[in-house]
Amino acid sequence: MDQIIVQILNGLDKGSAYALIALGLTLIFGTLGVVNFAHGALFMLGAFCAVVFSRLLSLSHEVVDETRTDFLGNPMTVDVPYMHDIFGPEVGASIIDWAVPLSILFSIPVMIAIGFAMERGLIKHFYKRPHADQILVTFGLAIVLQEIIKAFFGANPIQTPAPTAFTGSFDFGAWLGFDPLTIMYPYWRLVYFFFAVVVIGGVFAFLQFTTFGMVVRAGMADRETVGLLGINIDKRFTIMFAVAACVAGLAGVMYAPIVAPNYHMGMDFLVLSFVVVVVGGMGSLTGAVFAGFLLGILESFASMPAIVDLLPGINQIVIYLVAIIILLTRPRGLMGRKGVMEE
Amino acid sequence: MLGIKGKDLTVFLLVAALALLAPFLLNPFPVDSAMAQFNAGYPDLMQRFVIFGIFAIGFNILFGLTGYLSFGHAAFLGVGSYAAIWMMKLLSLNIIPGIVMAIVFAGLFSVVVGYISLRRSGIYFSILTLAFAQMSYALAYSVLTPLTGGETGLQIKQTDTPLLSNIPEGEIGRANLFGLEMSDSSILRFANWEFTMNVGYYVCAAVMIVAFYLAIRIFRSPFGMMLRAVKSNQQRMNYTGLNSRPYTLAAFVISGMYAGLAGGLMVAMDTQVGPERMFWTASGEVVLMTILGGAGTLIGPVLGAGFIKYMENIVSKINSTVLHEWFAFLPDGMEDFMVTIFYPFVGKGWSLTLGLMFMAVVIFLPGGLVEGGQRLKRLFRRKKAEDDQSSAAKTPAE
To answer: Which residues cross the membrane (chain A) (predicted)?
Structure first.
């Protein structure tokens, strides 16, 4: 029993990331009808937003500290972050400590701007082109974004720690009434899961309960009619693209403490997210979220030692295997709608 | 001649001539001149040109004719490679059985993958093939280690004693074709020029010429016509009572066999395999070559493969010293500025250049290099272009 809970919990954080990326991908499919292979790169850019912001926050200048001396007997110089000057040492230190959550604020405008620029600058010209062309041009864009990041930040992963308040692990077992120390779960992953739930809830609420969202949903169902009603649907779809980019970016920001960002992390997630979207059903938002969590949890179950002993290698391929089975038995995916991206 | 005529014959002869004369054509600069770094006539690089050429020709039969975009073709290349190296380890160091088995195994594997993937089309097909390729990669990397060597891959070792080749104790076997060793080459020297004639390269080139010839025959056959029909309007084809699946499956398997052939040749030239050959970026690369050259055209994939491999080799060799030499004629400040601008795009930045080039081609030149060539030709022959346009207007209505 406790093993099962452990695996479900382990699957949650990866599942959250899959769900967030797949949600964005599906939004883009559903609205613009574009296959965005650069979505993983947006996730990666988000993670690097966290890196940049925490570096910005910890910018420092040298100050001569008269009270201490170095090994030669001269007064020692110490690095003092600007944050300490502005907010005083205590608040400054905690701001630096909380750099990753704070960089959400920084990354939202950045990601929206990137999404907007991408849609207006590139994707717009590909509405009418075949899907193959869309895949190819966004694939090229993903390579370019990846290489730009590599040129600036190098090829090595960059450690971006979570706030110290969240570094420990939460003893889930004791909380649920099992033996203590059987089910341990890092706090940050829990935070990530709740964060993902909030973001997903936010996107759904936005689409469900606002007039803007209603128009977008109407446009997803029948773009032409909405256009005939005198609504500028293209503009709204562009905004939805920016929102999707932002969701992917936020997923990346918060993922930075879990896996140190490197330039190809986006590609690793992209392939799996595509599989998630296909399993969930092209164009179905709930399907994408559901399939994201489902596949995340399945993946962690498959990596249980008992199962790996039984079927070696299953942990590596379970997602692809599930995708193949689903596509062949339910061609539209778990919750796909009729008529959306049938071909 | 040989059942092909007209323009096709010209194209075929052109490709054959390019392939056979490559050691000379690719080494146009004297050895110790400043331009020598643009030479590409090394056996190893030329082999890659033709092998990737074969791979792209095969991919084009699927993508160019039927429009099905496979993102997992590297898996067939990998399967072919593994099959070939096992034949060379166990049976014979002669490359023929290895290559034959590579084609057979890649073909069988592509029957399985194709049978399943071709039930869906469009983006679903791409993702299914991608899923299969990633699965094979993951398996080759982990569970199938006894068969694939895992991360280290497979090489021919001292301990390998193929049944039919008797190698002296303690010597590492080398790939050969009835005694002709693949790594043998003879160097021709004229004044300052040096041309390397390599056995392995000529084997590859001969295979590529045959492969290209078969591709032409497929393009011009009734079967090729059917594949084109699949691309232009599959629905209409179905309504006329034709089942398109056998045709697409056949195309898929043929292109899988081409990939296997390329994989087998890779092993024959350089007797080692690793799972990274099956990674999805490798599949992306062949898509890129085909698009860059011009999908659906005969010569496009060959050009694309050659172009990308050439650029990869040349661009990634350029470093900051070379850049400084190039811009030495400028004033110092300008020189440093230009070097700073160009530096991110050369050397290790080759992928960036590749990505940009790729985007530019898809955006501005969807027909690839072939279309670019046609546009240039039209530019210079404005008069004739007008005639072309009037004939183009006669295409049937959809």
So the answer is: 17-35, 42-61, 98-123, 190-216, 237-258, 270-298, 310-328
Q: Are A251 and A46 in contact (CB under 8 A)?
A: yes
Give just the sign of the alpha carbon dihedral A198, A201, A202, A203. Answer: positive
Using a CB–CB cutoff of 8 Å, tell me whether A154 touches chain B: no
pLDDT at B394 over 50: no
| pLDDT, position B378 | 86
Q: Name the helix (H) or strand (E) containing A234.
A: helix A233-255
Task: Give the number of residues written for chain B.
Answer: 398
A285 touches chain B (CB under 8 A): no
A133 CA to centre of own chain: 25
Q: Across all residues in chain A, what is the average pLDDT?
A: 83
d(Cα B398, Cα B394) in Å, to the nearest integer?
12
- The encoded tokens of residue A293 equal 């969590």
Architecture of domain B7-299: Orthogonal Bundle (1.10)
CA B181 to chain centre: 23
Contact check, Cβ <8 Å, A35/B128: no
A118 touches chain B (CB under 8 A): no
- The answer for A33, left when phi > 0, alpha when psi is -120 to 50, beta otherwise, is left
Of A141, A143, A267, the CB nearest to B354: A143
CB under 8 Å to A223, separation ≥6 — which residues?
A: A233
Mean pLDDT check: name the lowest of A98-102, A338-342, B212-216: A338-342
Give the pair of three-digit tokens for residue B50.
């033709």
Q: For B173-207, what is each residue's pLDDT tens digit?
A: 777 777 777 777 777 777 777 787 788 888 889 99
- A214 close contact with B: CB closer than 8 A: no
Query: Is the CB of A137 less than 8 angstroms away from the CB of B363?
Result: yes
pLDDT tens column, A173-196: 677 677 766 677 788 888 888 999
For an interface test with B, give the residue of A39, A127, A320, A322 to mutate (most B CBs within 10 A).
A320
B157 touching chain A per CB within 8 A: no
Q: Which amino acid is at A289?
A: V
Rg of chain A's alpha carbons, rounded to an integer? Answer: 23
What per-residue confidence (pLDDT) applies to B397?
43
Res. A160: pLDDT tops 90:
no
Q: Is residue A276 a contact partner of residue A295, using CB atoms and an 8 Å limit?
A: yes
Contacts of B236 in chain A (CB under 8 A): none
In angstroms, what CA-CA distances link B141 with A39, A337, B55, B89, B274? 26, 37, 23, 20, 9
Torsion of CA B205, B304, A155, A199, to 10 degrees: -140
B354 contact residues in A (CB cutoff 8 A) = 143
Of A136, A151, A328, the CB nearest to B287: A136
